[in-house]
Amino acid sequence: MEKTFAIIKPDAVERNLIGKILERIESNGFKIAAMKKAQLTPSQAKGFYYVHKERPFFGSLTESMCSGPVVLLVLEKENAIPAWRELMGATNPEDAAAGTIRKDFAVNIEQNSTHGSDSAENAAFEMSYFFSETEILS
Ligand code: GDP
Fold first, then answer.
1. Which residue of the set 3, 24, 77, 115 is catalytic?
2. Which residues on adjacent β-strands are paired with residue 114?
3. What local confidence, expressed as pLDDT, does residue 77 receive?
4. Does ligand 1 have an atom closer than 6 angstroms to the CB of 9?
């Protein structure tokens, strides 16, 4: 079993898509090992997206992540990291495959409804950024 870290981003929470996204997660065989709703602060968002600090969209990305509440998740499944990225679809909804979350729900390349870790190393960092070990129930 592998764990990955996911976020339902403010654009999706704002449009009442939490339930629809959780339904896709569970019906695709993921177990929800941890979940909480949170309002990110600018410093939390900047720390989380630190790897992107030199990118031109860093300011607007971190601002949009603080524009409303998010849902933070730890998901568990065999090969959870690639499986969750496949279910989310490509970063830009215009490039995302049919039936993926981003194809169906994303507003644009930035407000793309969900986040998913892209490596085991980043998943470990991201999970521990928002959850203590005792909050993650396998
Ligand atoms: P991900 O792993 O698919 O989420 O994509 P990245 O790690 O490359 O980027 C992180 C997040 O930054 C994405 O999910 C988007 O919200 C945002 N983002 C990525 N590329 C762009 C871009 O070209 N423009 C803007 N405005 N936002 C972007």
1. 115
2. 8
3. 98
4. no
